[in-house]
Amino acid sequence: MIAELRKTARRTGHYLTRSLVCREPYRDQVLVVWLLVAGLFWIFLTGPADQKWIIYLALSTALVAVLAAVCAIDARFGIIPDKLVGAMAACGLAAVWLLDPNEMMNRLAEVGIVAMAIAAFRSIYRWIRGYDGLGFGDVKFLAAATFWIGLRSLPALLLIAVVSALASAFLLKSAREEVDGRHAIPFGPHLAVGLWLAWVFDPMGFLLG
Description:
Elements: H1 2-20, H2 30-46, H3 51-77, H4 82-99, H5 104-129, H6 136-149, H7 154-174, H8 188-201, H9 203-208
Helix pairs in contact: 1-2, 1-3, 2-3, 2-8, 3-4, 3-8, 4-6, 5-6, 6-8, 7-8
């Protein structure tokens, strides 16, 4: 277990250092990593430094650490490990319990709805197109992400993820690498940055007042 954690930490550190300075093999990840960093700085700079903010900061630090590991592994191997998704879901459940315990049952129901809806979409997409548009790891990631931001902010997550993925595709194309429907870039890092920004800034909360 400890050896696995060390290996994941090394891979994540390598991913972050290469991405931050736009170096191969993670040039296309530069926007993702800088947005993760910017969100963390935003929390540090704008928090009221009370007890609830300290809990929020601790939860956010745990989340960004897990998301960085998800980005590193998915960018390198094209998979989102179940252990990381499980850790994200467990921390998200803790976040609901600590910050808004009255929301617990609603959030559990939303997670179930999201998991079933996205799994159905994935199956229909494969039936129509003949290949997967989303990996099953992405489905589990989105279900776990719902613990953190709820069903309300899931559209914001997906919108941010799509824009981020398009930016990465542009970077890959500018480097003359092939990008098409069957050679798609890993979507996990873009889902990760979508979740992170939805958690930090709560865009739907802002729009809905």
